[in-house]
Amino acid sequence: MSGNRSAALDYAQKNHARFLEELKALVRIASVSTESQYETQMAAAAAWVADQLRTLGMNDVAVCPTAGHSVVCGEYRCSDPQAPTLLVYGHYDVQPPDPLEQWENPPFEPTVKGDYLFGRGASDMKGQLLAGLKAIESILKTDQLRVNLRFLIEGEEEMGSPNLAAFIAENQHRLQADVALNLDSGILAPDFPSITVSVRGLAYFEIRLYGPASDLHSGTFGGAVHNPAQVLCELIAGMHDAQGRVTLPGFYDRVRPLSEAERAEMARLPLDEAYYLKVTGAPALYGESGYTPAERVGARPTLEVNGLLSGYTGEGSKTVLPAYAMAKISCRLVPDQDPAEVYQQLLDYLNAHAPRTVRWEVVQHAGSPAAMIALDRAELTALSQAMEQVWGKKPLYKREGGSIPVVAQLQQIMGMPTILCGFGLPDDNLHAPNERLHLPTWQRGIETLIHFFYNLTS
Amino acid sequence: MSGNRSAALDYAQKNHARFLEELKALVRIASVSTESQYETQMAAAAAWVADQLRTLGMNDVAVCPTAGHSVVCGEYRCSDPQAPTLLVYGHYDVQPPDPLEQWENPPFEPTVKGDYLFGRGASDMKGQLLAGLKAIESILKTDQLRVNLRFLIEGEEEMGSPNLAAFIAENQHRLQADVALNLDSGILAPDFPSITVSVRGLAYFEIRLYGPASDLHSGTFGGAVHNPAQVLCELIAGMHDAQGRVTLPGFYDRVRPLSEAERAEMARLPLDEAYYLKVTGAPALYGESGYTPAERVGARPTLEVNGLLSGYTGEGSKTVLPAYAMAKISCRLVPDQDPAEVYQQLLDYLNAHAPRTVRWEVVQHAGSPAAMIALDRAELTALSQAMEQVWGKKPLYKREGGSIPVVAQLQQIMGMPTILCGFGLPDDNLHAPNERLHLPTWQRGIETLIHFFYNLTS
After folding, report:
1. Which residues of B331-349 are buried (b: 16+ CB within 10 A; e: fewer)?
2. What's the CATH number of domain A3-199+370-456, 3.40.630.10, 3.40.50.300, 3.90.650.10, 3.50.50.60?
3. How confident is the model at residue B368 (pLDDT cuts 50, 70, 90)?
4. Residue B77 falls in which region: left (phi positive, over 0), alpha (psi -120 to 50) or beta
5. Tell me, what's the pLDDT at B367?
6. Phi and psi angles of residue B255, each rounded to the nearest 5 degrees, phi first
7. For residue B395, what are the CA distances in angstroms to B389, B390, B391?
8. What is the pLDDT of residue A1?
């Protein structure tokens, strides 16, 4: 280990107590983005982050207005003209604290108990954001940072980032980088380092079926008219085959197959059937034949019914033959599926299978492709080595089943890949009462990021 | 024609104008049963009907309280110990008049225009009820009535008769009769006399499916867990085969086949494909192979989806994998299906087809068997002959697709069959603005009922 790297690590250890006090100061700011009563606190949190960046010596720090909550930007230019550039992504907003009565300590009065800091946002993601900033501080105070940095710290992640795509599109000049470092992620367990290497895409649709001109009496007309709710069920039932595969024509054509090496890697994840049964509470598992649950969630595309509505759904009975039936359907996509193509595949399916007894239409709600970091990319290797340097074992590569809008937006708008990095834990109570941060893991996270910055240029 | 019968018919013709004035008086009473603001008018209508019965010379006339609106009872005992006994059924309540702005005349200010009397309840069923009472008056004023009568005139038909079954069960002694004469029916067209000889039964269920313990994120878990909304669609899709037949095991075992004579009779009904397309506005018709639309609605059982609900059904998108899915399903039954057996058939189907990835339950909401009058029954022949005597042509026998609670209740509680008789027309705007009564048909109805009473004992 080079002397300077070791000085930075020493600095991080010696300053742990102060880092924690600064994190507590940030957690005390109730920056709930979804409720207007917290507006002052949102502005205070943005200002706090901007001050941190200025204190670190970042340039051009600015709190940039959007149609919603502000985005904090800034940058660091190192002296080496060959240095890589990273776009550090984070968010300063947090989930609402409800239900308040279930918190053992007030959500915005951060409290240390044993190895944990309790408080709303401690893990998601004020702790993760500060791990990044404190790693940078540790290097800058003891050495030179040989990486260019740009910052994109938004305030609307917990609202679904409604104004972020527009902000990225209009501010590409100040965001340009080789790769984004998204700090809003986690690892599998305190002794189980892992890196999320892909997120699935999303193609969300609403199918609307129209039968008779208005709701009919099911006695007077039942038997002579096709019931749109029945037709909807038949169409949806046909969207999976007996092997649990999606039947939209061409759905799997672009799906990148899993290599044997990737399957072996995924088999090492602690995500077996028993795990999925326990966390979901489902009576039994289900999925595409020939794949493990972790592969089905991480590396295979799906089609889910997110909502169904037709006819009378109140208490008791009403003998209506509905005029209308609606389903919300969404597909999770994997590389290299294209949301626009999946939309066309759904239309093809309906054109082929919808009977002429109904009219139908499809509304598109959202679409984003999957994103996967190239497994041989230098930044990924640098992060993997950093984890091994801290934990003493290689991290597992994990594929995430969900979709992260900013990852897809940076890819789509700027062609920028993302490295997902973060040290949250599955039992941190994200979005729930008694959210907490595991402090030993947090400290390892800071150390991992110090190693990462050094590995990038060594 | 016997001299006395002809005197009764003469009386009915000569008194037409007064009969109409009395009907207008009854229509003026806004007896809307579903809204509490009309409570006084409901009591006034019951009193009006009771006064009519007393004026006719009926005995033991009483306005009998129930948990809801009152039932008017009364009886007539003729001197002939061999005379048959009829239970005359009607209702004095009407539908709400909304939307008021679409009425050309105020709904409770009865107005004659051309051949029609306009007003809420003119056809459904104050006109039909008075046709019965005025036929009785015409005979009693000119001759002797050789039939025993009992009356059951309820005030909650437009609410679904919630208190009628209890009333019938507790008052069997005052309702006992050979057959019920239900005046709440209609004919196909002014020149198309018809008699409804059957109504379908009903078996109404709610199917509830439970998958994961709570709603899941469709990204984090989609692919590894069976989606209850998808399972529900698959189960419902399997409830019909490609011929439009219901697949519940044993569903058709007790269905009484249509005889060739009945099919020929039904083929004469003006209920062809063009008719059903026009009145439903459906893009195309549908139904069980091998049957006409009229047969599918009148003489074949069905299974309809009355409601579907699962997951997120609001605006836009939410990426939820629902924990729960619900369908309301009802079967229309024909003789000799048994609602309890159909419930068991549904359980058998679900036991055979529901996957072990979900838990399920079925709630029963309502059940009543179909009712059909024996086609060789003397009272039916008497009514058919009466129509032929008035119209100069035989009426068609029609099977009604809907269910009439009181018909099933009298059958179930007292074993009493029902003759359905009435002279409403399909374009009377029942339950709609500008409800109307076709006065020439109404007069023929009074004459038909006079003939009917004579035919019963001749």
Report:
1. bbbbbebbbebbbebbeeb
2. 3.40.630.10
3. confident
4. beta
5. 84
6. -70, 125
7. 10, 10, 9
8. 54
Write the CATH number of the domain with boundaries B3-199+370-457: 3.40.630.10
Label residue B135 left, alpha or beta by phi (over 0 means left) and psi (-120 to 50 means alpha). alpha
Q: pLDDT grade, residue B1 (50/70/90)?
A: low
Cβ neighbors of B212 (< 8 A, separation 6 or more) are: A280, A281, A282, B221, B225, B321, B323
Are the C-beta atoms of residues B283 and B274 closer than 8 Å to each other?
no
- Classify B290 in phi/psi space as left (phi over 0), alpha (psi -120 to 50) or beta: left
pLDDT at B55 over 80: yes
Tracing tokens 């007996």 back to the chain, one arrives at A242
Which contacts (CB < 8 Å, 24+ apart) does range B254-258 have?
Answer: B254/B336, B254/B337, B254/B338, B254/B341, B255/B300, B255/B301, B255/B334, B255/B335, B255/B336, B255/B337, B256/B334, B256/B335, B256/B336, B258/B295, B258/B299
Cα separation, B274 vs B286, in Å, equals: 13
The mean pLDDT value of chain B amounts to 95
Contacts of A238 in chain B (CB under 8 A): 237
Each residue of B371-425: pLDDT tens digit?
999 999 999 999 999 999 999 999 999 999 988 889 999 999 999 999 999 999 9
- State the Cα–Cα distance between residues A450 and A119, nearest whole angstrom: 26
Fold exhibited by the domain B201-255+301-367: Alpha-Beta Plaits (3.30.70)
Compute CA distances A374 → A194, A332, A338, A384, whole Å. Answer: 16, 20, 18, 13
**Smallest Cα–Cα separation from A153: which of A48, A37, A35?**
A48
pLDDT at A355 over 60: yes
The topology under which CATH files domain A201-255+301-368 is Alpha-Beta Plaits (3.30.70)
Q: pLDDT tens for residues A227-263?
A: 999 999 999 999 999 999 999 999 999 999 999 999 9
Instruction: Collect all residues of chain A within an 8 Å Cβ-Cβ radius of residue B424.
Output: none
Please write the tens of the pLDDT for every residue from B157-198: 988 888 999 999 999 999 999 999 999 999 999 999 999 999
Using CA atoms, how far residue B56 sits from A37, A40, B16, B454, in Å, is 73, 81, 17, 18
Nearest to B233 among A225, A276, A305 (CB): A305
Phi, psi of A246 (to 5 degrees): -80, 135
Question: Using a CB-CB distance cutoff of 8 angstroms, which residues of chain B are in contact with residue A237?
Answer: 230, 233-234, 236-238
Residue A458's pLDDT is 80
Average pLDDT, chain A: 95
Q: What is the pLDDT of residue A317?
A: 83
Chain A contacts of B236, Cβ < 8 Å? 229-230, 233-234, 237
* Shortest CA gap B277–chain A (Å): 9
Tell me if A3-199+370-456 shares its fold with A201-255+301-368: no
Q: Chain B interface, mutation test: which of A304, A361, A362, A404, most B Cβ atoms within 10 Å? A: A304
pLDDT at A205: 96
Look at residue A288 and tell me whether its pLDDT is greater than 60: yes
Q: Report the alpha-carbon distance of residue A166 to residue A362 in Å, rounded.
A: 26
Q: List C-alpha distances in Å: B227 to A158, A287, B316, B324.
A: 26, 10, 20, 9
Strands B148-154 and B85-91: parallel
- For chain B, domain boundaries: 3-199+370-457, 201-255+301-367
A11 pLDDT band, cuts 50/70/90, is very high
- Which residue on chain B is closest to A297 by alpha carbon? B223
Mean pLDDT of A133-144: 97
Residue A57 burial by Cβ neighbours in a 10 Å radius (0-12, 13-18, 19+): middle
